[in-house]
Amino acid sequence: MTVIDETAAAPGAAQTTPLLEVRDLHVEFHTRDGVAKAVNGVNYSVNAGETLAVLGESGSGKSVTAQAIMGILDMPPGRIPKGEILFQGQDMLAMSGEQRRRIRGRKIAMIFQDALSSLNPVLSVGYQLGEMFRVHQGLSRKAAKAKAIELMDRVRIPAAAERVNDYPHQFSGGMRQRIMIAMALALEPELIIADEPTTALDVTVQAQVMDLLAELQREYNMGLILITHDLGVVADVADKIAVMYAGRIVETAPVHEIYSAPAHPYTKGLLQSIPRLDRKGQELYAIKGLPPNLLHVPSGCAFNPRCPMAQDICRTEVPVLHPAGPGRGSACHFWKETLGE
Amino acid sequence: MSEPILQVRNLVKHFPLTQGILFKKQIGAVKAVDGISFDLYPGETLGIVGESGCGKSTVAKLLMNLEQATSGEVFYKGQDITRLSGRALKAVRRNIQMVFQDPYTSLNPRMTVGDIIGEPFDIHPEVAPKGDRRKRVQDLLDVVGLNPEYINRYPHQFSGGQRQRIGIARGLALNPEVIICDEPVSALDVSVQAQVVNLMEKLQDEFGLSYIFIAHDLSIVRHISDRVGVMYLGKMAEIGTDAEIYEHPTHPYTQALLSAVPVPDPEAREKRERIILTGDVPSPANPPSGCRFRTRCWKAQDICAKEVPLLAVPSVFADRDTPAAHESACHFAEDGTAAA
After folding, report:
1. How far does the CA of residue A303 sit from the closest CA of chain B (Å)?
2. Fold of the A17-238 domain
3. What is the DSSP annotation of A205-238?
4. Omega before A76 cis (within 30°)?
5. Mean pLDDT of A24-42
6. Is the ipTM, as predicted for this complex, more than 0.85?
7. What pTM, to 2 d.p., does this model score?
8. Does domain B43-65+84-328 have CATH number 3.40.980.20?
């Protein structure tokens, strides 16, 4: 498949710059009750062939960041007051709508959590898959359908040629998610953003889908941003992790390090609250309190009301992301103590 | 062990599939639950795991008699509750209560917390005399870790975890003996799940409750359960103590399920062997003949298509003193220690 249009990338830039870099991104929502700061200065980057897992609870800003990257944020009420999103060195926020549209789908594709509500129920899956080729590449209906069958084959949907005219409700959850993956892969993008791709699936099917995604990623050497709340899924597939809390990244690290020695009390609390064999019969460790309301984020470190290590400084000063070892960062005033314990 | 508090025997629930509008004729049935038997003992937690569509939530409804069983019995202290109605059913339900999955839709948004938790007292006025109720509700709020002053608030003023505590308080109101929890923590944020699990364990100790804990999160089920049953397509595949099931699974489905669970530990993940099942769960309207798991099973042979394997201690382990000697419905049961 040929990519027809080349967005004028600076020569040589792709080699040295990351595939995608988010710099100091802020997103806020204007609501009746005030301004909700959903994303407060997020920085992360992904290289080709790399998997970045963005881990966070609901309201941590992980999905909003992804929507800002895709350019599908509802604005208004959303607003991006500050920040840059560099794709192959170019700031997408400074681009025109037309330029962004050329990147969306073709260079960056997204997989959503709920395949059933992301697919159009009154159009056959073959039509919806073929739409990618008709719109972006101007193929005829017939050629587009052939491509759609080929794609369905590639994501291992059995008897693709017979099922191409079926409607989304005729597929099981796992198969629907494969169709979503096929749709994202259609134009061979360089970056895929998967927002909770397996959360709605059963574990045995989840394992199939994650394996497929990882395999296709290797095959096409794509960058992958995996957004999830599941520490288990992350451990399975990610190269590096960014943990988000109340719109900020509180910890980043290569996957092995974060599980063996977390450098932020929030990450540490999450890991400790997972039921483990040797702690059966005992009380589970529980992070006290509740995730913050984004309209009233606590001053200083947003985690301070729930943190067992909080001191006065945590209530007044927002911690910066301290370097905490090779490729690691922790936004905690006491990251050394957290690591050292 | 003491007498079981609940005995479930060959419980079956088929939902009819009909065709035609005026003259409905039955063209088949969704075999949601197809012959399940187990016991629940006082003070214990029985975990039930399985994928969506395996019938675990239908079992919960049958135990509450919210659905009429097609056949089979549920004995509560020796009395079959599936055939009860009216006053007798009401009396039994006082002792078997339920906590639901979704704390957003299971609380009436137009009722205050006090009304929600106090509603069971309207149905069973003998439990709390009228003048006493407000006090009882406040005590319950305190027990589940909520501020008793919140009694006049509405559900939307609470977070998901707090709402689930309200649901638990409502379940506790009538001092039941059995609480059936259908996915009680799966709708909650990760950092809040542990709080609710701890609360449930504390309440069990305090009030001597028996739980049926239905969930798909295997690690939480293991943490809270004394015994675990694994369901597949309306049948019990395997049942045993938590250590028997998790460390010595003998049914291939249990082995695959355990190996598919993402482990939050990259080191352990590289060591373990994963079994990736092919395909999806077949439709319960048209389940495979013989063993229902055979279409996805790597051990399947001719006998699996012909004979339904019974849930019993496999003969290979029958006389041996091994944790693998627990009930498993497989013709080719093997101790899966290595695979898990």
Report:
1. 12
2. Rossmann fold (3.40.50)
3. HHHHHHHHHHHHHHHHT-EEEEEES-HHHHHHH-
4. yes
5. 88
6. no
7. 0.81
8. no
